[in-house]
Amino acid sequence: MNLFSVTFSLFLLMDSIGNIPLYVAILSNFPLKKQIWIITRESLIALVTILAFTFFGQIFLDFLGICHATIALSGGVILFLIAIKMIFPLPVPVLTGEGEEPFIFPLAIPLVAGPSVLAGVMIYSLKLPTKGMLVLGVVIAWVLTTLILLIAPWLGRVLGNKGCKALEKLMGLILVLIGIQMFLDGLLRFQSMSPSSTQSCTQTVQATTDLSTSGLLLKRHLSPSFNPLPEHQ
What we know:
It is built from eight helices and no strands. Helix 4 crosses helix 5. The protein is an all-alpha fold and 233 residues long. It is globular and about 60 Å long. Mean pLDDT is 79; it is low at 228-233. It has one domain (3-193).
């Protein structure tokens, strides 16, 4: 994996083209200079969040005892699901009150620094030889995304709603291929693991499942009316 592939993947995950209609709608009531300031501020917040996961995400995963194969497999599934949403988008509700200036949510998180980007940088941190290459890829993808968002009102008028949707679908198709490739890489990594490592990875998943089950049983014991599954009418 090289710098170009990492940068391109992160750029797709940040989904700047798909976010243009949302940015235009949310910031439409603010003057142009105010829009530029808000976009710049929210983009910087997103960058700090992504870099924090780049440097400290692996520590968190090691603390949980999650093996590399699990991260690659789950990352491939996440990228695939995100790509499906890009190809078949759902209607997006209004995320801020009328006239209210957005702060962190939703422009920085989750529109730019979303779960897929945060999961992606943690996965790439395992596959790249140095952190420097990943940080450079994050910064380049972030600069491209920020530039596109800064000219979002102009691009929205030029491309139109249909043009933005068409570009987002195209990026989603590319992301499907990246997600499947990442899943296959994780599967090969799991198959090549030693029996002891495989057992450790399986035990981590089993321990997490047991902990979740114990939590549900405890809630059931403390509150007899608690029911995690809705009853079918």
